[in-house]
Amino acid sequence: MSIAGISRSQYYYKPKSGKTGKRATQSTRWQNHETYQVVIRSNEKVVEDFCTVKEDSNQGDYYKLICLAYCLKGYIINHKKVYRLMKERDLLVKPKRRIEKKYVQHRRVAPTRPPELIEMDIKYIYNRDTKVCLCAYGNTHIYTLCVELQRRI
Predict the structure, then answer these.
(1) What are the phi and psi torsion angles at 47 (to 5°)?
(2) pLDDT in tens, 15-70
(3) Where do the domains of the chain lie?
(4) Residue 38 in 3-state DSSP?
(5) What's the predicted TM-score (pTM) here?
(6) What whole-number distance in Å separates Cα of residue 132 and Cα of residue 122?
(7) Rounded to whole angstroms, how far apart are CA atoms 88 and 99?
(8) Are 104 and 55 contacting, i.e. CB atoms less than 8 angstroms apart?
(9) To the nearest 10°, the Cα dihedral for 13, 14, 20, 22?
(10) For 140-152, what is each residue's pLDDT tens digit?
(11) Are 39 and 32 within 8 A, CB to CB?
């Protein structure tokens, strides 16, 4: 092992086959609100109830809303299991495709005469009791304009 440059644990390591982690459950717990008795229901029955919830127009199609509705009905289920069950049965809502906006990529301004392009830069200057606006505009000439906009009390 020292010749190959590996440790003893690396030499004897055998990778495990199959998926790691806890296996998915085949049933879901449901608690009766009146008797507080817990009943185990199969996942197929839960998925049938998904279809009835999705038919209701007042209920949303999103799996987190369906999970909340099921928790209110008495099911002991979390959003990850609802997502897995809906994905297996292809009940998830397809995401809406957004239209890509077209922005200006390269803006080149080339005015040929003076009044063809007017740009304005507005700055506000605050004094103790007044607010003054300073405007600079034009192609080649810069003008300043001071106006009292608001008197602070």
Answers:
(1) -65, -35
(2) 888 887 888 889 999 998 888 899 999 999 888 887 777 776 666 667 888 888 88
(3) 25-88, 116-151
(4) strand
(5) 0.53
(6) 11
(7) 29
(8) no
(9) -90
(10) 444 444 444 444 4
(11) yes
